[in-house]
Amino acid sequence: MHLSPLRTTPTTAPVLSWATRGPRAARAALAALPSPRAELRRTVRWATQHGLAAAVLRRAAADGDLQGLMVTRTAGSLEAPYEIARDIRESASLHRSRYAWTTADHAVVREVLAHPDLRSGFPEPERGPVARLAAWAGEPDRLGPLTPPSLLVTDGADHTRYRRLVTRVFSARAVEALRARTQEVAAQLAADLPRHVDARGEVDLVEAYCAPLPVTVICEILGVPAEERERVLAFGQAAAPSLDLGLSWAQMRRVEVALDDFRTWLVGHLEHLREHPGDDLMSRLVAARDEETGEGLSQDELLATAGLVLAAGFETTVNLLSNGLVLLTGHPAARAALAADPDLWGNAVDEVLRFDPPVLLTGRAAATATEVAGQQVRAGEMISAVLAGANRDPAVFTDPDTFDVTRANARDHVSFSGGRHYCLGAALARMEGEVGLRTLLETHPDLVLSSDRRRRPTRILRGWATLPARL
Q1: 406 with 412: CB under 8 angstroms?
Q2: Are 425 and 417 contacting, i.e. CB atoms less than 8 angstroms apart?
Q3: Could you give the 3-state DSSP secondary structure of residue 404?
Q4: Which CATH architecture is the domain 34-470 placed in?
Q5: Could you tell me the residue ranges of all domains in the chain?
Q6: pLDDT tens digits for 385-442?
């Protein structure tokens, strides 16, 4: 077992400062640290959730398996996902890889996302040593976007009830009401960029613009007071990798610590919203009641929804903005078209989502033996739907490898998933993308990105870690 060295976090900082606080405070802080048993369980969780999957996929990739290549060889690469997706699509509309099915065919991806016999998330492991270890190490109360009762991994009647309430609050009208505030935030951030220019005359747009814009909007949604927003930004940055596959042990530990800290903070915040409701969407969700049953969301469902808004809404929108900036600054014809016809901005955001989406792929598991794209899929088998590949399917998109903001069917992309798990934040992401990209590029029309920009190393999430630029 490997235990990482102690790091200064909101949990460990009190221990590291014991000399200035006295031995009693140090003992209390030490008592609050995870026990060796808790760390052992965390290590086993990592092994069963990330380590084993990563090792298996690396081995498959070494043997030329297309799904293994898709997951392990595309991290940090701009072109590799689309080259491998083309190979998958040309192999079969539904390709049988070593450990699962996979598809980059637009029609089949849509079928998979809407199929009644396919469930979100990963299948339950077969009974055996790994399954027993995973059950022993699991923590049912852990907050996370891929942990029940998150909407991402909830199906059936619970999903219908749950989504109905959340959809009523996070409606298109409610999101549109946030547009004016998002515009204010974007304009202020864009105006402040010169203050962040470093000694080389450059500013990192991810740090100074792409990240603070969505987290500020998320804080508005969650009803977070201004003095708490830096804290929520830290939570969001630390928790965002929870959507990825194959995290290192240290990465998973940082994510879990951040989510645990966020849960602790969120319990108190929800109690405050119950006693002092505001005009924010989270206050409305706390008060929402089902018209048929009169019941609202449970405490765990409210916590899971807030966690999903933070983890999924933060990282994916940061990636949308950074991907969009690279594409638009690299295509002068697109910039000229938008300047000539500003009504194209909405379509331009959809073309960004099609051409370089924030999420590479998603997965479904067969709840029962069924048929998909003419193939017999057994109960428990996994199907990987390569969203980025479907977005470049030449059967749907003419010249799919060309970035074209005037593309008539750009909105036919599948970057927001589909079926009953279609992204609840789609309208919000489109609005933030349009406002964020347009405001920045209109405020700084001569902006030039540096060539030493760096992509994120994540496997499933696709975006830029740094975007140094001259204004």
Answers
A1: no
A2: no
A3: coil
A4: Orthogonal Bundle (1.10)
A5: 1-33, 34-470
A6: 999 999 999 999 999 999 999 999 999 999 999 999 899 889 999 999 999 999 999 9
